[in-house]
Amino acid sequence: MIPPVDLSIQHAQVAAEVAVGWEEVFARTAFVGGPQVAEFEQAYATFSGVAHCVGVANGTDALELALRALEIGPGDECILPANSFIATAEAVARAGATPVFVDCDADSFLIDTKAALAALTPRTKAILPVHLYGQIAPVEDLLDQDVFIVEDAAQSQGATRNGAVSGSLGHLAGTSFYPGKNLGAYGDAGAVTTNSSDLADRVRLLSQHGSAAKYVHSTLGFNSRLDTLQAVVLQAKLRRLEAWNTERSEAAEYYTSLLRGIAGVKVPQVLPGNTHVWHLYVVRVPNRDHVHDTMRANGVGAAIHYPTPIHKTAPFATDGSFPNAELVAGEILSLPIFPGITRAQQDRVVEALIGALA
Ligand SMILES: *Cc1c(COP(=O)(O)O)cnc(C)c1O
């Protein structure tokens, strides 16, 4: 079976370093906070080209805390694409604000920025462009609108747009270090990045019980911190992330070279100005469910990200219609991609795909 992602290859490369780092944490028995967290935050800020990074418990919290740091809440509207992972909408709703869905572009799968601008109202406080599948949304279309830009950078660690790194293009960004992400922890983890020291302080305050000094609680907060053990893993993996993203990119080019011109397969498009980090390699095919099932029966673990647009899920059901999001949800198929995937594996994936189309 070729899995959609194989994390064991990454693990083998960092195992020794993680073991040493974890032994140090065990020796000190300091499991929350500590120098490892601060070092990783500094390293990730530098990697992302921003002044500040605040580690938090997961990517959904990162987005919620970013919105709360901006004092976005009840009565406020936040615009987001209908074709994201549900967490983008959860963060908005949990902050108390109203998610306003807009359609995506059917070729890039990224937020339709014209639709986003058309959805602005006097109540709009933020737009959350999602850098879906590993490439940055055309955020520049959305700037200068008197609303905040909060990037959902969960799938785009290391991606660039016109030279700017994912997580540095908006007022704040939330990212996720869920294990399968390009930079994945060994459990849940996430971070907020920003150039604003005020906003970074505000996120940090909220993330640790509304408390800047021990037992002084200035506001109602959360317990949402980056674990020390996870910081050790992330620091080891961050050193290798650029090389791993290059491996993903080479694998993506190989898929595209094999699939371009195959009738029925639409290969993924990279927007001009973008370097894509290929969190996922997503094609569009007819009879997707049949193709998916047939590939699985032939030992290829393709996947679907995501089968249901958010506005069709139970918690966010609306009667709004987002034709591109609905169209692509029925056609998208994520082919296995991960650092270390072999050409032989990719050949088998493509053979299974072409066989399933017949
Ligand atoms: C993974 C992901 C999140 C949420 O991150 P968690 O760490 O799982 O909470 C948010 N948005 C997108 C687009 C994601 O892929």
TrEMBL record:
Query: Which CDD domains is this protein grouped with?
Result: AHBA_syn
Keyword check for Nucleotide-binding, yes or no.
Answer: no
Question: Which of UniProt's keywords are assigned here?
Answer: Pyridoxal phosphate
InterPro entries with a match to the protein in the record? DegT/StrS_aminotransferase, PyrdxlP-dep_Trfase, PyrdxlP-dep_Trfase_major, PyrdxlP-dep_Trfase_small
Q: Where are the transmembrane segments?
A: none
* A matching Pfam family: DegT_DnrJ_EryC1
PANTHER family per UniProt:
3-OXO-GLUCOSE-6-PHOSPHATE:GLUTAMATE AMINOTRANSFERASE (PTHR30244:SF36), TRANSAMINASE (PTHR30244)
Similarity-based family: Belongs to the DegT/DnrJ/EryC1 family.
Protein name, entry field: dTDP-4-amino-4,6-dideoxygalactose transaminase
